[in-house]
Task: structure prediction
Amino acid sequence: MAASDPRVCLGVIVGVKGIAGEVRVKSFTEVPADVGRYGPVESEDGSKTWDLRVVGEAKGVVVAKLKGISDRDQAEGLRGEKLFVSRAKLPQPEAGTYYHSDLVGMAVELTTGESKGKVVGVYNFGAGDIIEVGDGQTATMMVPFSAAAIAEVNVKERVIRINPMPGLFDGGDGDETETEEEDNELNETAAPVKRRD
Result:
């Protein structure tokens, strides 16, 4: 994936339905059925492309038909396949709203200029969006994506500036969290993140 043509993961195939090659897709789009809205989807390595048509919904997933996949065995072979589209195919987010993929990799610094590493993940465990910040040497920190914590998101400079809040990075009462591997897929979501006021 070239830096000039970033891609966004819209969903992942988590199972099959029936015998006609339909797949169950865990959608990462804000509206689950939109996983099929942005044109053909690609495999993670870019070697395969499919036209995807959503044909139904089930608990927590959408049911989709991929062009060229016509039986259960073919569909089973796609289990775990992540589905990508070019970032350019997605609509521009509203002001103050960002795609997870736009935030991941951004430099993070305090408003004092002190570097804190970069964004390594974006999550929402139910109480609002959180960015995971790490420097590759110390434990990562979870920072609420709120106006109180985030002073600035500068997309052009690719930097997020954080207010120096007590306990956040000084080993006080900060919430050090080691995320489970299965939570990493939340990092892929194509649903926009809005900074809470």
Notes: Confidence is low (pLDDT under 50) at residues 172-187. The first helix runs from residue 72 to 76. DSSP finds two helices and 15 strands in the chain. Helices lie at 72-76, 100-103.
